[in-house]
Design brief:
By secondary structure, the chain is α/β, with parallel strands linked by helices. Helices cover 28% and strands 20% of the residues. The strands form 4 sheets. It has a 7-stranded parallel sheet with strand order 2-3-1-4-6-8-9, with helices on both faces. The protein has a two-stranded antiparallel ribbon with strand order 5-7. Strand 10 and strand 11 form a beta hairpin. Helix 2 packs across helix 5. The two termini are 28 Å apart.
């Protein structure tokens, strides 16, 4: 039988998003989530054997492991009854560093997205945000984001910790599912950017996750919220890799509550039911179901 991980006070987001029922169907096995960020610590006990690392040792202009390791834990920390657990605890992580010292962020992002496409990612979680109106351009990034969407990859990005109605790139781009952060009462977090341009919401306050050195930490921010939606997409992809990014966005949005947060259990169950229905059609006739050719 499937045994769910302990959901302690540090794991309230799993309850708010109704993740546990989804785990009776899938835990993300076979799905590949590319984390475009700093570097995921590949030998952290929560990830052993499930990190594809692309880092070539180039220096980063941020802490090498902290942010990406935190994001990776929220996506896919193992269900080992210790420390924490990810929303998709059996998914594979692809670690693609983008904060390369001396490299233009548009070049880094576009190259990282291209690499994720080549490594057959199902989902991309983007770490970078910047308010509109800045001098930063994303010409190359936008081209690669479109390529990724055309390849069937779901793209997710946090909206940023700006606490205002201030659209950010790349979150506002049409190829991206933008994620705002809520607090423990499911209200918009004071830390989060907000506005009608935000696609969906997820808990972003006091989220427990992994940190370098095999340790754990508690974090607040949209960088903690976005990986939950990326992991939800991974769960759906693990059921049906043919789901398009638009379909996955539609599925998740069809389950949101009054706070804009999705019901991941309902989303996964709905797709499992549709997949099951491919093998059966029509009413019961003469006591038997009509079986379709797969």
């Amino acid at each position: 039988p499937v045994v769910a991980a302990d959901t302690s006070i540090f794991q309230y987001h799993l309850t708010q998003l109704n993740v546990k029922p989804a785990w009776s169907i899938t835990r993300g096995s076979g799905a590949r989530v590319a984390v475009l960020d700093s570097v995921i610590q590949p030998d952290h006990p929560e990830f052993v054997g499930r990190v594809v690392s692309t880092w070539d040792g180039a220096p980063l202009f941020t802490d090498t492991y902290s942010h990406a390791t935190m994001v990776g834990g929220i996506v896919a920390a193992a269900d080992d009854k210790f420390g924490t657990v990810g929303v998709a605890p059996e998914a594979t992580l692809i670690s693609i560093p983008i904060f390369i010292t001396g490299q233009d962020i548009d070049d880094s992002l576009s190259a990282g997205i291209s690499l994720a496409i080549g490594l057959n990612a199902d989902v991309i979680n983007l770490a970078y945000q910047h308010p509109l109106g800045s001098t930063i351009t994303y010409t190359k990034t936008e081209i690669q984001l479109q390529r990724a969407q055309d390849a069937g990859i779901v793209i997710v990005a946090g909206v940023g910790n700006f606490g205002c109605d201030c659209p950010t790139k790349p979150a506002i781009l049409p190829t991206v599912i933008s994620v705002g952060g809520t607090n423990e009462q499911s209200e918009i977090g004071t830390f989060s950017a907000y506005g009608d341009w935000v696609t969906i919401w997820a808990p972003g306050q006091s989220i427990r996750s992994t940190s370098p050195g095999g340790r754990y930490t508690t974090v607040t921010g949209t960088s903690a919220a976005a990986p939950q939606i990326a992991a939800a997409a991974a769960l759906l992809k693990s059921i049906n890799r043919n789901l398009t990014p638009v379909q996955i966005k539609t599925i998740l949005l069809s389950t949101v509550d009054s706070h804009g947060q999705p019901n991941i259990g309902d989303a996964v169950f709905s797709q499992r039911a549709k997949k099951f229905s491919l093998f059966f059609s029509g009413p019961i006739q003469n006591g038997a179901l009509s079986i379709l050719n797969p």
